[in-house]
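Journal club prep — side note

Before the paper discussion, L.F. wants everyone to see what a predicted structure for a comparable chain looks like in token form. Sequence:
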Amino acid sequence: MDDRQTRLNEVARIAVDLESKTGCPAQLLIAQWALESKWGAKPAGNANFFGVKKSDRHEKCCTVSTREVVNGKSVVQDLDFADYDSLDDSCRDYAWLITEGAPYHQAWEQYQKDRNLHALIEAVAGKYATDPQYAFLVATIAGQSNVTQAIAAARQEVPNATA
């Protein structure tokens, strides 16, 4: 098994566990993890696998040069990102952000009603990222067979995981 598949399997176990605890869809968590960290190979700062910018709830941070889309143009900016102690901590904070964070409250409430993953991806992407292709990229990754297979395998391993 290659390193990328090993990382995917690890994050799938965490994602399935968090889905059972928070409701945050494992497919969404994994897709954003894959996109933001190049499948877990390149976190922003210390164990920040979701490109989460620093906010008041974060004790540790670092400054990272990152590519953003500003006024339709791709530019490099130095921005402050949260630092985490582990992949688990990064995933847990991401799940909290999606399910409890103010920017995503309306999208999360709608998802609770209709369970429409693609509508949630669209709503989250509009606030989460500056790239106009972000929702398409997340949805594409979320639907990949390697992602759905890793989730299915993790559901068999994780106690109390929901289908």
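L.F.'s comment for the group: The domain at 3-43+85-157 is CATH 1.10.530.10 (Lysozyme). Keep this in mind when we get to the figures.
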